[in-house]
From TrEMBL:
Protein name, UniProt field: Intracellular septation protein
InterPro entries to which the protein is assigned, alphabetical: YciB (IPR006008)
Lineage of origin: Bacteria, Pseudomonadati, Pseudomonadota, Alphaproteobacteria, Hyphomicrobiales
Record's keyword annotation contains Cell membrane: yes
Keywords from the named record: Cell membrane, Membrane, Transmembrane, Transmembrane helix
Transmembrane segments: 12-41, 53-73, 79-96, 116-141, 147-170
Keyword Transmembrane helix attributed: yes
Coiled coil: none
One cellular-component annotation, GO: plasma membrane
Organism: Bradyrhizobium betae
Amino acid sequence: MKDVFARLASDFLSAILFLVIYLLTDNVILATSVAIAGAIAQVIYARVKGRELSFMTYASVALVVLLGTVTLLTNDPRFMLAKPSIAHFAIGVIMLKRGWMLRYMPPIVVETVPEYVTAAGYAWAALMFVIGAGMIAVASTGDLKLWAFYITVVAGGAKILAFAVQYVVLRLIVTSRRRAAARA
């Protein structure tokens, strides 16, 4: 489980940097600049160490650099409110890649129920599209309090709930299959 969180942290490092700096300083320009620098530094560090970065990491880095640059150039509050929806749509598209989630699963799950992990990956893609669409709807109202509530409570809560449901379902299926295999 620790390895899964380390991989997720690596894949979304620049987004995490942005969020932390923004929450600490309330400065979008500084947070965006640090996120872009962090994304570029991550790629350089991986290359120096001879490590390969995953597809998700490259996608995350590309999104941060592209969207961050647009944020720095426009400084448009409406774009900043809608920007996370673009990221959700892009991540949703990336999550349509068959088997993307297998790298985050423990070996016992990958060996026992790879087809369910693949289905869960598609469910995560659908969730990203729904959250992105909701974010656009909320951003279009221009209500910053509603947007902040949506992005933290609704979007964050939906992801936490999806993770919990996925964990329980996969655990039950793996346990059931392993018991059946032991009996046979």
